[in-house]
Design brief:
The chain is globular, with a radius of gyration of 21 Å. It has two domains: about 150 residues, Nucleotidyltransferase, domain 5 (2-Layer Sandwich); about 170 residues, 2-Layer Sandwich (Nucleotidyltransferase, domain 5), CATH 3.30.420.40. It contains eleven helices and ten strands. With about 350 residues, it is of the alpha/beta class. The structure holds 5'-O-[(R)-(carboxyoxy)(hydroxy)phosphoryl]adenosine and zinc ion (ZN).
């Protein structure tokens, strides 16, 4: 049965205060947020499943779905209570439509559709990466054209925003995402999942560095590749062990981190110059990396390029960022149909605003 959206003719007036309730369940965080006027966070409740998945060394999709089912109602109630609003005051429901784990996405999508239908308000299916990028709009104004360096557990992309809500991917990883490479290297260094923050800490503390290759790819390319670097770390560990030596984990962590940072910041700054960028945005879970933040800040300052980096809580998966991206569509009256499904693979460029 097809259910048409009853609300597309609602065109919001820009002067009225409005509340967006957003839901994020694309991976291993169940999160609900209530955001006023697209930028003011009234609540942003996040329930992480990391402790459950840790014992398996990574996210187990089936377990993630079941955990979302268990917690979604509680998190929803907590977000409403914390915001001090009633459900009747909500003007639109936003939800991560994709990309992500299909079973996990569906829990959020079904909850969002039920709310939109029951409250008779618009539904806004939102792209997860648009959420990571527009987390920056919760902390400052964005000056266009802007360039977003997206570094998360599932994505590594350079996204050009010629104007508000228009996304163009100019570079992406050809194999592992940065966070994925961090987590795999962390496992080789015997850290628990997700190991990115442990590698970061070890790299900061290191006094020595094993210099590892930089994967620049062909000249002019803004794509990335991290699987060779990850293999180089594993090869170094094996080489040491074959010689009967103990591998220097901290020197390896530093070498790995330096190689990643040099390449991602190098390509971001080169693209900024080529495309006449007025502002750089850093986002995604790996934006919490101290070394990366410091290097990008230094390079942007040197280039006279303003930089926005959200605080850590807004870098990792959360629903406030989904509300911030959904706001682009709310202000243009671009709503989703109640037929909406979760999309494990979803194009960011196609999700761009229409007007
Ligand atoms: O954006 P996110 O929360 O989830 C995805 O949408 O993928 O990113 C999680 C990723 C994990 O791979 C985690 O290890 C990594 O971000 N991460 C870090 C740091 N903090 C989180 N990687 C390196 N350094 C960090 N400080
Ligand atoms: Zn994410």
């Amino acid at each position: 049965m097809s259910i048409s959206n009853p609300q597309p003719e609602i065109i919001p007036s820009s002067s009225d205060p409005y509340l967006i309730l957003a839901i994020e369940t694309s991976c291993d965080e169940t999160s609900v947020a209530i955001v006023r006027n697209g930028r003011e966070i009234l609540s942003n409740v996040i329930s992480s499943q990391i402790e459950t998945h840790k014992q398996f060394g990574g996210v187990v999709p089936e377990i993630a779905s079941r955990k979302h089912v268990e917690s979604i109602t509680l998190i929803l109630e907590e977000a409403i209570r914390e915001a001090g609003v009633s459900l009747e005051e909500i003007d639109a429901i936003a939800v991560t439509e994709g990309p992500g784990l299909i079973g996990a996405l569906l829990v959020g999508v079904v909850a969002a559709k039920s709310l939109a239908l029951a409250l008779d308000i618009p539904l806004i299916g939102t792209h997860h990466i648009a959420g990571h990028i527009y987390a920056n709009h919760l902390i400052g104004d964005i000056d266009y054209p802007a360039l977003a360096l997206v570094v998360s557990g599932g994505h590594t992309e350079l996204v050009l925003l010629e104007s508000e809500g228009k996304f163009r991917i100019i570079g992406r990883t050809r194999d592992d995402a940065v966070g994925e490479a961090y987590d795999k290297v962390a496992r080789a260094l015997q850290f628990p999942y997700p190991g990115g923050p442990y590698v970061d800490r070890l790299a900061q503390e290191a006094t020595e560095e094993v210099v590892l290759p930089r994967s620049w790819l062909e000249p002019g390319s803004y794509d990335f590749s991290f699987s060779g670097l990850k293999s180089a770390v594993l090869a170094e560990i094996n080489r040491s062990r074959m010689k009967g030596e103990t591998p220097d984990f901290s020197a390896l962590a530093r070498g790995f981190q330096q190689s990643v940072i040099d390449v991602v910041t190098g390509k971001a700054l080169k693209a900024a110059a080529e495309f006449g960028i007025r502002q750089m945005l850093l986002c995604g879970g790996v934006a919490a990396n101290r070394g990366l933040r410091d290097k990008l800040e230094a390079l942007c300052q040197e280039a006279g390029l303003p930089l926005l980096i959200p605080p850590n809580k807004l870098c990792t998966d959360n629903a406030a960022m989904i509300a911030a991206a959904a706001d682009l569509k709310w202000r243009r009256g671009e709503f989703s149909s109640l037929d909406m499904r979760g999309e494990p693979v979803m194009s960011l460029e196609e999700w761009s605003v229409k007007s």
